[in-house]
C-alpha cells in the first residue's frame, strides 16, 4: 500500500492498467481502490494531460468498476436500471464519480445521457471541465463494457497504444455485430449506434463508418438501418 508521501509519485496510468488486469485475473483489487481514492486531485489532473491518457485511464476505471459492481448483489439486483449507472460510488482523488459521470461527462465530453449525442451540457463543474476529453472520439463506445452480453469485451488500455487499440476494438465490434443484408439494402447493427447516433454523425456518419470498414459496399446508396435488441444478460467477456 502506498503511503500519503508517495501519492504524488504514483503513475496513475500504470495503476489503472494493473487495476483492470487484477479484475480480469480475479485477483485481489481492494488495494487499488484505496490508492485511487487517496490520490491527490492535482496528481490526477496533471498526469491526465492529453486525450490519449484520459481515454486509457477512464476506460480502464469504468470497466474495472463495472465488474466490481456486478460482483455485488445489491447492484446486480438493479442492473441495468439507471441507478446502477448513476450511483456515485467510485472514489477517485477524493471525489465521488458514477459510471455515468465517467462515460457521458468525461469520455463523451459533457454529452447529455438521453439525447443520442445531440445535446451538450454547457453548465459544468470544475472537475468535469478539468477531466473531460478535449475532442470527442466515438470509438470509446467500443472500449467501454457495461457488463451486458451485447457489450464489447473488456480489455486494458495503454495510453501509448490507445489509438491502435480503439481502432482494433472498433473493427472487431463492427465485424461481429454489424451485417449488411443486400437483398433488403439494410444494415442490421447494434443498438449502441441508435443510443449514441449523434456521436457517429447521424445516419450518414453511421453508414459511412460501415462503408469505410467494408461492411457495406462503397457504391451502395439509400441504405436503411435496423437495430437489433440489446442483450442485457450479464456476461464477463475478456480479451
The neighbouring-strand order within the major sheet is 3-4-5
Could you give a short account of the major beta sheet? Answer: 3 strands, mixed
Tally of DSSP β-strands: 5
Radius of gyration: 18 Å
Core attributes:
single chain, 239 residues, mainly alpha, 2 domains, 11 helices, 44% helix
Question: Care to describe what's here?
Answer:
- The protein is mainly alpha-helical.
- It is globular.
- Strands 3-4-5 form a three-stranded mixed β-sheet. Strands 1-2 form a two-stranded antiparallel sheet.
- It contains eleven helices and five strands, in the order H-H-H-H-H-H-E-E-H-H-H-E-E-H-H-E.
- Helix 1 (about 10-25) runs parallel beside helix 4 and helix 4 (about 50-70) packs antiparallel against helix 7.
- The longest helix is centred in the first third of the chain and has 20 residues, at about 50-70.
- The mean pLDDT is about 95.
- The two termini are about 30 Å apart.
Amino acid at each position: 500500500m502506498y503511503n500519503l508521501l508517495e501519492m504524488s509519485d504514483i503513475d496513475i496510468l500504470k495503476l489503472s492498467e494493473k487495476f483492470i488486469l487484477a479484475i480480469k485475473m480475479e485477483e485481489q483489487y481492494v488495494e487499488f481502490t484505496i490508492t485511487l481514492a487517496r490520490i491527490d486531485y492535482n496528481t490526477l489532473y496533471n498526469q491526465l494531460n492529453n486525450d490519449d491518457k484520459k481515454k486509457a485511464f477512464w476506460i480502464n476505471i469504468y470497466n474495472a468498476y463495472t465488474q466490481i459492481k456486478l460482483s455485488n448483489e445489491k447492484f446486480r439486483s438493479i442492473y441495468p436500471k439507471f441507478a446502477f449507472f448513476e450511483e456515485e460510488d467510485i472514489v477517485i482523488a477524493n471525489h465521488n464519480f458514477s459510471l455515468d459521470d465517467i462515460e457521458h461527462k468525461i469520455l463523451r465530453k459533457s454529452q447529455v445521457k438521453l439525447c443520442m449525442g445531440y445535446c451538450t451540457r454547457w453548465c459544468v463543474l470544475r472537475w468535469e471541465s478539468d477531466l473531460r476529453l478535449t475532442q470527442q472520439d466515438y470509438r470509446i463506445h467500443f472500449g467501454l463494457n457495461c457488463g451486458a452480453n451485447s457489450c464489447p469485451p473488456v480489455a486494458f488500455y495503454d495510453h501509448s497504444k490507445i489509438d491502435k487499440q480503439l481502432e482494433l476494438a472498433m473493427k472487431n465490434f463492427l465485424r461481429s455485430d454489424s451485417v449488411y443484408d443486400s437483398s433488403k439494402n439494410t444494415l442490421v447493427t447494434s443498438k449502441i449506434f441508435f443510443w449514441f447516433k449523434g456521436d457517429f454523425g447521424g445516419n450518414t456518419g453511421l453508414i459511412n463508418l460501415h462503408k469505410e470498414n467494408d461492411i457495406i459496399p462503397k457504391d451502395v446508396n439509400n441504405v436503411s438501418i435496423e437495430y437489433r435488441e440489446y442483450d442485457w444478460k450479464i456476461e464477463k467477456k475478456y480479451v
